[in-house]
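Sequence in, structure out. Go.
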Amino acid sequence: MTGRNQTINYLILLLVALVVCFALALQDTFLSVGTLQSMAFQLPELGVLALAMMITLLCGGINLSIIATANLTSLTIGYVLTHLMPADWATAAGIGTILLAFAAGLAVAGLIGLLNGVIIAYVGVSPILATLGTMTMVKGISIGLTHGNVISGFPEPILFIGNGVVLGVPMAVIVFALCAAPLALLLNRTPFGIAVYMIGSNERSTRFSGIDTRRVLLLVYVLSSLLCGVAALVMMSRFNSANAAYGESYLLITILAAVLGGVDPFGGFGRVMGLVLALIILQVISSGLNLLGLSAHLTLAIWGAILILVMAVGYLNVRLGGRAAQ
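Output:
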């Protein structure tokens, strides 16, 4: 466990090294206010989705339906806004419509999470198969209802979530922080969080200890889907549109970010702080290489290489630590 806890230290060192290297290569450009704000605008949507993936990985599961859930949620919110919104959003009716759209979107996300949780926790289907099936079903519903068309034209309060700034800080970053901080407290300071880690370490032993593991797993997948709902709001506000195919490349990146951040892919260990550092590292690499004019494919290759390196170092630390203990 000591080796795993050192992951945070390795991530900090890696982040500092990357910032120094890009700052030297790009001089004043990389650390400019414009570049930092650009990175801050791009990180939150992937960050909230990564949180949704992380919590399922902690209990030894996975949620492959996060992108499909986010897209159907955004389409639901977009449909309500474009069909029921009065001409002037700055009225009681307009604000009520916005709140109704939020409620409808989160309800859809919650129902998808409930379906995943019931299938996995109570029926006993493997998480990867259950969420793969849900992903396919939800994406099919999204495309079937919209025929692949884009819903666009949202009121200013929606656009402000993804593009607005509060005291120099992008609103999307504030939304991400409002998701990450409570989740960290939930996982580290509550019986529910302890149960999540215990299930990830050994579900059978956890069940024998008297914890209702099925109920905990159900709540985990509902929470994961609700986070997808928040991510949907950030995504649709940034692009001023919603579509069934948005963000498909994010799925594997969320897994990469979680594992890079120290989350055990088999469950039982991981911290929100590690995930946040991993997200920042990935964003720094992406932005730095983009400013250098290099291919986006090279970014993916470097992301993969860093993941392999960090996992290898962590594995060696655990193995050497175990030998030392013997």
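Check: The longest strand covers residues 151-152. The chain has one domain: 2-319.
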